Amino acid sequence: MRKPTLSTAAFLVLAAGFLVLFMGGGARFAIGLTLKPMVEEFGWDRSQIGAAVAVFQIVSAAAMYVSGVLADRMSLRLVLGGGLAASGVAIGLMSLVAAPWHAIVLYGVLYGIGNGAASITVVGVMVTRAFPGRTGLANAVVSSGMSVGQLVMIAALAAVLVTIGWRSVFLWLGAAYLLLLPFMIAAIPGHADAKTRAGMPHLSGLSVAQAARTRQFWLLLLLYAICGFGDFFVTTHVVAFAQDRGIDALLAGNLLALMGLTALIGVIASGYWSDRAGPVWPTALTFVARIGVFALVMIDQSPLSVAVFGLVFGLTFLVTAPLSVVFVRDSFGTKNLGALSGLIVMVHHVWGGIGAYIGAGIFDATGRYDIAFAIMFAAAVIALALTLALRRPHAAV
Is the Cβ–Cβ distance between 55 and 353 less than 8 Å? Predict the structure, then answer.
């Protein structure tokens, strides 16, 4: 059999990365879609589902770091394939939950491990190896799988939810993972070949300990912590918030889906921009937009304002995901790309869990999200200042 050409191999890498993130992009938001019907059926507090989301964020964050370390040392096919299989089984079993601890174990722990292994961290390593010259745009293309998955899958699942209930949402997601698994594994490359690794710049990069002695490293950790804090507060609660403000369940679910469409626009534009001007300015514009929309819903919570809030926030949602590997590559090299980018994404997701949980707790205590929006507004202002404090990164080695 003739060995695939470089263009064919590169296409397969993009297709594999896109499919992995497409599934994760749709499935991880199902908990936000089903939050309100679940708590209403069982009589739970929103914070009980928020706890499952918080555990998911922490567990998946740890799994992202571990999988990033493994991606530097072993087969990507094994890491990503194992993560996809675990995700499909765990999310499918969510259809059987009957107590809050079931959701914590299945969604929080088991799905968190699978989602963390089959995540942007490992996909970013895979894509950066294949596209050393266009890292920002290539990672943006595969990261768009998350927004397309959110758009397509959440729109379909919103219809499923209204028609046959929230349990079917999780059942169909589990089936989709397992049906697509063989095709995704076939497209994922195994170990990087010598030619691919030889084409990578900065191969002798910094270790985690060496990077931790730099100002850039700590600025990035703080920045991604705040980013995650806002990201997962919004995606966990936006559907319930929209329903609270008078938008019906189907339209509220479709708002979350349409956020995926605006995220697609944002992530592609930021990837293209970062290859030309570096990752700092796309990141800064992200937080300028967030400051604006958090201010909007602090002032007005009409259905129109809720829709504008969701769509504009969606435009910013995935911007920093492909830029994490660009920041790491340019600042610290590529020898430990998986470990360093995994650590940054881990911090992002841990604080995402905190944001989701705090938002639920504030709602349970006050019956509104107003205090949470004020906190997110202040956090976005701080994140903008941190972004502007970042110098444009240059190769550290």
Answer: yes
Radius of gyration of the chain (CA): 20
Contacts of 12-16 spanning 24+ positions with Cβ under 8 A: 12/187, 12/189, 13/126, 13/127, 13/130, 13/131, 13/187, 13/189, 14/127, 14/130, 14/138, 14/141, 14/142, 15/187, 16/80, 16/126, 16/184, 16/187, 16/188, 16/189
- The upper half-sphere exposure of residue 375, i.e. CA atoms within 13 Å in the direction of its Cβ, equals 17
What CATH number is associated with residue 198?
1.20.1250.20
Asked if the structure places residue 10 within a domain, the reply is no
Q: Which domain holds residue 185?
A: 15-389
**How buried is 335 (Cβ within 10 angstroms: 0-12 exposed, 13-18 middle, 19+ buried)?**
middle
The Cα 351–Cα 356 span in angstroms is 9
Question: What would the two tokens of residue 290 be?
Answer: 């967030």
* Alpha-carbon gap, residue 270 to 135, rounded angstroms: 12
23-76 pLDDT, tens digit each: 887 787 788 778 888 888 888 887 888 788 888 878 988 898 899 888 878 788
Number of domains into which the chain is organized: 1
Cα-based torsion angle of the residue sequence 318, 247, 56, 72 in order, rounded to the nearest 10 degrees? -20
